[in-house]
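Sample 3 of the quickstart, ligand DGJ:
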Amino acid sequence: MVSSPAVCHLRAGGVSLVLDLARSLPRIVHWGADLGELSDPQLQQLVLGSYRQTVANQPDRTPWVSVLPENSQGWVGTPGLEGHRGGRHFSTQFATTGIRRDTDPDGTERVTTQAADAVAGLGLELSLELLPSGLARLRVGLTNLAADPYTLNGLLLAWPLPQQAQEVLDFTGKHGRERAPQRHPLTHGTYLREGRHGRTGTDATLLLLAGEAGFGFRQGAVWGIHAAWSGNHRMLVERGSGTETILAGGELLLPGEIELGPGETYASPWLYASYGQGLDELSARFHHFVRATRPPEIRPVTGNCWEAVYFDHRLDRLTELADAFAEVGVERFVLDDGWFRHRRDDHAGLGDWYVDETVWPGGLHPLVDHVRGLGLEFGLWVEPEMINVDSDLARAHPEWILAPGDRLPLEWRHQQVLNVGHPAAWSYLFERLDALITEYDLTYLKWDHNRDLLEPGSQLTGRAGVHAQTLAVYRLIDELKAAHPRLQIESCSAGGGRADLAILGRTDRVWTSDCTDAHERQVIQRYTGLIIPPELLGAHISADPNHQTWRRLTLAMRAATAMFGDLGVEWNVARLDADERRELAEWIATYKQWRPLLHGGTVVRLDHPDPAVCAHGVVAADGHAGLFLVTLAETSVYGPPGLLRLGGLSPHASYRLEPLPATRRVVAAWPGTPPPWWEPGLTLSGQGLMQYGFQLPDVPPDTPLLFAVTRVDGGPGRRPTSDTTINKGELP
Ligand code: DGJ
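Result:
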């Protein structure tokens, strides 16, 4: 227990959290840069200095803005808790009944607060954690302590923003263009982003961020939140006329969706919060967390047949494709949409999760055996939450469709949504998926979800069902994985429509976007990658011209872009001539050579004064090497584009900078003389490369420049150490 009046100082990964627990629910006094070791009196002084005076025409007691802001504490912004009991108890005043602080063996710091409002008949348990990387998270369990039902309308948790946060960054998007950034000044009022798609959403703001004016990837303090929830959600940034500013988020509840019976508890999703000096630092905290939750592994190169054959499933074509995939270095074959009963196009069959006997008279075995015979893994596409009205399942169980009751929702890609919250529908899905996984010994499912949930009512209860649907899908995945521990799942939702930390906590890869155009992918991967590390972002080399945009790009550009994700091929490689196959195989071999570094290192995105320059890379965790990719999104207004300053290197180490051979070939083919350093390469200190940089060659847009940096002064991640020192057996 923490003594009262209580102040808590949590520190981890360069971040400090100071909590004031004195008056009511925890108030976060400071969330940001590490404040160093502070004695109790120093902490008390810090908190004392945070209290502001009361000015004219304000409550006589200073507002107390806790992590669940309450009107009863003088907060007149968006309330943390909204609900009522038959119209009463619309406002709460929670009193803390217990506070516990503990530390996990991995260094996670946790403060758990119990509180109750005896009049409103509500109790809550708030968990605040600071993880070893400096990533923080908050969640709450709200319990109805009274004998009559409590209707919960909404619950938002809040993180405070300091006054120097002056600019907001969030994301929008659509199918094929996920995570498009948008920035604007942080003004007074509420900036609200809601996701009402019944899934995370292609336009969802993965993060809602605010920072110092002009913050970038490598500079400027920035704070951001992420709601780990795959259903409806709300995120807001709010600044009132006092200095208080909050970033808040949580689940968005539809009318009547949650009614807590006596003793029932609503568990909120985790609301993650990350701070950084620049977006890269903020992002690295997420990557550290995501990586820490899964065992390291070599991720196989995927060959997906979707853009190669679409619905045209024929054993001979697919075995031929598998042969070609194997020849170029693919390590996993994924059979996409089109293999199950009645699924000859996208109008029918969803829900009928039996192998189609007309197309596959011997089941999938001949293909699976062939693929495995080539030494490749086999994976299968499914879309369990969906149902076509033209399916045996819908004919047998029309009551399993999510619908408001008296009508079916609008169709979307000719399909409806199955009510996975319906116990019988859930059991049907579990039985079917379990049977398929068992029969074909599947270790990989691509789990798709191609539409929004419109009018998502349960025909069983008549109530809105997104909350129940989301939890039921989580349970379905969890139980399938428990039954099949080797199973990996790719989260796809018409591309990146379900990319969040809750789905990622139970899946193993995200299909970043249906847009495989490498030019567009520069931005999509860059921003989806803010919370998801590169090895979990599916990035496929596809056909030229591109199927989504008809843009023509070289294989070099397509491959170099895919290298910075979880590389795959989604292209009819069987139709390529020998030269094209050889070139593709060379790229895949280069990727495999760099894969351990790319999939475990620190992601670096570079700020450049010319917005046309798109530059990023990955540096090994110990700083011994890195790989950077530079492209121009359009012609630079400068000629040549100018100096590029790298990031993420050890400042005192000496590095060799060289273009990869493929980059040398590309630049040699372009008229003009490259900069003088080009042929010999450069040997420079990390500091020199990061503070001064080097001249980029002038190349056309979408020409990939790949640079390797390798430490040449001896020890990885260390300052230069003389041989004598090492021989003396001293620790470097
Ligand atoms: C949408 C996915 O994003 C695609 O990759 C593909 O799997 C199709 N669905 C299949 O219907």
